[in-house]
Amino acid sequence: MPSVTMRRRKVLVLALASFAAAGVTLAASARHVWAQQPPPPKPPPAAALVVNAEVMVLYATTVPGPGSIDPAIGKMPQLTKPPFSVFNTYRLLDKKVISLELGKSGPYTLPNGRILQVTFIEPTTEKRFHIKVAINQPGGNGSYLKLLEVTAEPNEPFFVAGQPYKDGVLVLGISLRS
Amino acid sequence: MSLSKDELQRLMAYVDGEVEEGEMPEVRALLANSEEARQMVAQHFAVGEWVRASAEGRATAERAHDIASAVMARIGESGSANVLELGRGRGTRAWSRERAMVFAVVSAAAIVVLVYAWPRDRAPLDPLVASGAPTPSNGSAVESMPGRNTPEPALPIQIAAAEPDGQGVDIQAVESPNHPVSIFYVPAAVGPNAHASSVVVWIGE
Fold it and tell me: Both B71 and B39 in a single domain?
């Protein structure tokens, strides 16, 4: 009759064999499942670089009294400082977002009929945007602003002002949005 | 019939294995003729076996605190007890080796399973997501993107991303024939770009 020790050893050997078999089986099945997975998708084609230029068209006038700033303009403390402080009233005439692909222009017709052209030249290494602005006469009859080339960081507005409009002037606020 | 003092001593020596060869026939004769002697020897052998079993940790919990009841139980169970000398420590060492082998094999099996079942590298992030581009769900500037309403799928559009800190606006060139140009730098004064000045290009008529 086998001793207790021999019986115990047999049980242990059986347990070891079971564990090893389970491990090998699990590993083989995992490998099989992994081999059946579909190949990774191909990378998408190169994306076009786009920047959005927000153009605000303001109408600046001087009226009797303290004047006012259109609330639709939002927070723009520059309007209370020179040279803008020459006028005491500002109204928002239009707000437009022009989507610009790299190297391309986006036209916008101003209230006075002139054509605003904004061109996205390139992004800079400092994560700013190099753009060109031009204001042409309607019908292509010459230009009011032949060239304005700037490098601007996102959400930092710059202004092109001085075009006569009705009793005041037009102020164009241009911001580049990321 | 009660045992004499000498007979008791001989029996104790017999139980302890200390009977001399010359006295063994007398001990055997006493055991053969005296029931009392046989009972006493059996009791002593049972006690010895119980002590050894307790030392090896085989005493049960209900008998461990009651030596008398354990001894009586042993006596009731045993017939003629055979004293077996165990090689103390030999079985314990073998059991420890077996445990180590079991642990080693189980660990190896677990490692194999983990290696094969570990998830592989994740698929690369979508470049639109990685670039922080706005998705159609947030609606920012999507409506003005070119090609959005065309039936053919348009090229994916990556919105140019930029950092908030910068150097404001720099003018590289201004050209306006027949119109005077003035450039002003107006402090912004508030907001995250308070350090910057707003550039104003004033074009006269």
Answer: yes
Alpha carbon distances (Å) from B113 to A15, A29, A34, B118: 17, 10, 14, 8
| B52: containing domain | 5-77
Q: Are residues B59 and B114 in the same domain?
A: no
Check if B117 contacts A (Cβ < 8 Å).
yes
Q: What is the pTM of this model?
A: 0.47
Identify whether A38 is preceded by a cis peptide bond (ω within 30 of 0).
Answer: no
- State the total domains in chain B: 4
d(CA B55, CA B71): 15
Q: Which chain B residues are within 8 Å of A157, Cβ to Cβ?
A: 198
For Cα atoms A54, A60, A61, give the angle at the middle one, nearest 5 degrees: 165
Q: What is the pLDDT of residues B69-101, one digit of tens each?
A: 666 666 667 655 554 545 555 555 666 788 888
Residues 33-72 of chain A whose Cβ lies under 8 A from any Cβ of chain B = 34, 40-41, 43-45, 47-52
Contact assignment for B201 to A48 by CB distance below 8 Å: no
∠ CA B51-B53-B58, rounded to 5°: 135
Backbone angle region of B82, left / alpha / beta, with phi > 0 → left and psi within -120 to 50 → alpha: beta
User: Has residue B144 been placed in a domain?
Assistant: yes
Q: ipTM score of the complex?
A: 0.73
Q: Are A147 and B203 in contact (CB under 8 A)?
A: no
